Amino acid sequence: MTGYPAEPWDLHGHAYIGVWLVPRTHLPPPHSAATRPITIFGRGIVSAAFFVYEQPSPLTYDEIMSTVLVRQGWRPRVSITHIWVNSAASRDGGRDLWAIPKDLADFDVVPHTSYTAQGIGSLTVQRVRRLPFRLPLGFRIAQDRAGDLLVSPVTGRIRMGLARGRWSFSGDGPLAFLAGRKPLLTLAARPFRLLFGRR
Prior knowledge:
Shape: globular
Largest sheet: 12 strands, mixed
Number of helices: 1
CATH class: Mainly Beta
Low-confidence stretches: none
Order of helices and strands: EEEEEEHEEEEEE
CATH architecture: Beta Barrel
Strand content: over 45%
Number of domains: 1
Mean pLDDT: 96
Structural class: mainly beta
């Protein structure tokens, strides 16, 4: 008996995702040593995102995460290096099911306006230009589980848009490698539906 639902999780909500090109020397290491960062002219592709999971998701909660685009051989993967939620059930399920290193944090969220994870980072949304259609999405996350590589699928549909916003990260916090850096772009996913994990 666990305090979280079995996989896959059928997740609904909205998100804002910033994308940065970070010098290789400042990249956080991938969660698994079996993967390698994908770099472009010496820079890795890093994202930070605020997610709000809403009904009818099996769990409703707020989340901030940071990821690095990596490769397993020549296959692209997403490595979740840092992540916080305000749900103990989500924390425990993420760790047990997919080896995602979730911790707990306090959040202050005004949907589509401002997002703050205390001591970690914040986003103020200034403008969003939405696309008039939904796009399919599919990728795999690659995480370390006791020295073995665990690869898990994520599929879904997203109504994507381009956002303008102000990101801020604590210079002495866990995402300090993004502090003071300007994102390449900020994406708005509003709404999304994601099927996370295996059937």
